[in-house]
Amino acid sequence: MKARKTWIIAIAILIAGIFGYVYISGLKKPPKRKAIQKNTVALTTIVKNGELPLIVEGSGQIKAKNRIDIFAEVNGVLKPTPKDFRTGQVYDKGQLLISIDDREFKANLMAQRSEFQSLVTSILPDIKLEFPEEQKKWDDYLNSIIVDRPIPQLPETKTRKEKFFVTGRKVYTTYYNIKNLEARLDKYTLRAPFKGIVTESNINPGGLVRSGQKLGSFSNTSVYELELSITASEASLINIGDKAMISSHDNVNSWEGIVSRINSAINLNTQTVSVFIETSSKGIKEGMFPNARIFSGSILNVYAIPRNLIFDNSWIYYVDNDSTLQKAEISPIRFLEKTVVVRDLPNGMRILDKNIPGSFIGLKVKPVSALPSK
Fold this sequence. Notes:
Elements: H1 2-25, E1 40-46, E2 50-59, E3 62-64, E4 67-71, E5 76-79, E6 90-91, E7 96-100, H2 103-130, H3 135-144, H4 160-168, H5 171-185, E8 189-191, E9 196-201, E10 208-209, E11 214-220, E12 224-231, H6 232-235, E13 243-247, E14 254-262, E15 272-279, E16 291-306, E17 315-319, E18 325-329, E19 331-335, E20 339-343, E21 350-352, E22 365-369
Parallel strand pairs: 1-22
Antiparallel strand pairs: 1-21, 2-16, 3-12, 4-11, 5-7, 5-10, 6-9, 7-8, 9-11, 12-15, 13-14, 13-16, 14-15, 16-20, 17-18, 19-20
Helix pairs in contact: 2-3, 2-5
């Protein structure tokens, strides 16, 4: 009896549920709201192709154009000079830089000249017999030899017989040996090849100097060079003679310069080209690390676009006549720090001035002209 009641209650609940579902389904649904389409605001700018100055920038170290490292070619003790060869000392062209004690070498040279004088004296009797017409010439030459002065040039022989005679007596061999010693004597004294300053000194008066020892460095103070490492693409835009402006690291001082040399080889490690700027401006010091701007004319019919607006270095967004975003291919000709110079964009094209998050080709936008930058 109880089981029958349970089944009757269950069937009643099921029937009530079916009627309730049908009733609720029959209720009137609320009207759907129409989606309000809202265009995305796009800040845009109008392309106006024009002429842009071609400026290449870089930085490097200032070096003296004429700078020499001085090495000793002889041995000896360094002698005192009117001006000690020390860092910061200024010399005029031809002024004595370094003097090494040459007394021993000079005495040996004078002995060699005396022996040569004896040699010439010994051949005079034979010359009188074999070449009487040349006797006066050799007599005059013998009288011109002074042991404490450079040996005079040998007289010219007029015949092969006379030449072979002089050669057989070792006159030429002895003469050129002495000339070699005289050239070496000059190495004991070093003079300034140009007006400049000592930038490095490794010696003191009274110290022993050895052959091959570096004595110091000497630099010209009137002409300097600044070496810049420029990318190969930018280096192709620079010409010798282009003007440059050199500025100190803090931009307080500036100097004028000119491009003097361009290396034709590319550095394998950095893939850059060395460009040299020459300057004679006052106030520049060797060792400075300034910035430089090279002015190489201008580029026609180009436009500069911010780098963040370019995708894959090949295309940008522009707003079409139907206010949708479209893709425009570009032709970059130069990449700068913040902008890219492009060519062949049509005048009047409306391009984005600021990227739109989630933008895509065909996106409907509301173009608004961007305010010009101050």
